[in-house]
Amino acid sequence: MHELYDLIIIGSGPAGLSAAIYGSRARLKTLVIEKTQIGGQILNTYEIENYPGAQESLTGKKLIKRMIEQAKSFGAEIIKDEILEVEIIKDIKLLKGQKKEYKCKTLIIATGTTPKKLGIKGEEEFISKGVSYCAICDGDFFTDLEVFVVGGGDSAVKEAIFLTKFARKVTIVYRNSNLKCTKVLEEKSRKNEKISFLFNTVIEEIKGDGILESIFFKNTITNEVNEYICKEEDGTMGLFIFIGNKPKTGLFKNKLDMDSIGYIITDENMKTSIDGVFAAGDCRSKSVRQVITASSDGAIAAIMADEFIGNK
Questions:
Q1: In the predicted structure, residue 312 carries a pLDDT above the cut 80
Q2: Is 137 a catalytic residue?
Q3: pTM of the predicted protein model
């Protein structure tokens, strides 16, 4: 006999943990299931400046630690398992995990997103051998070396600034002529002596003998291609890719309404196309994806889940 939960949350980022706090505080029997690391991608965020009440040097790890402690203090359970299959049409939802099966009255999907790849020749070959999608994870490996950051949005510029703590030189590579980040971040990056810019440029291919040694840059205006080879004394260089994310919603394909990209469609109350199933955070279709909006989504979804159970 499987234990029946009032609320199960798939995903443990800010959306999932906020939902856990609100759900468990409402006395719902609440379970959070996480496939990989508790906390999600925000763990890789070095500094959070725009979260209300954030103190100086608030990192993703610190914020998540507080959220976990708070959720557990209200009675939420947090476990690691990978959900492989879901049956969500009936009143009681069934989740089939790698370790066991779970049943719940309501479900909140807070699976977040995963970084997009460039899709260029050599990218897969050099992952963790020069290519990275996480500055806080791998920045230290490139101390006193040269690194290139692909992307022009907030994430890319923020990570480029962070990488100047380690790298000798950081070059932001962007396909357009102007950055699309906030003015505050642009000003910070332009004032940083370690940061330079390579606009109207894309990367065609990367090469190396076991580690990244060569990058082929293409000018989007002239179509001219130039190969950049790392300095002989360095032996390698870094390529950090921050060109956006894609939703981790494959588990719910053809089960829930989604947009053309794969983000789950909800109403303003986080309700999906199936009764008792909600989505929160970056995995749902919306215009703004920030820590604060993810947390807000999670809170709303849990309140609506409580209301849904109360109306049964």
A1: no
A2: yes
A3: 0.83
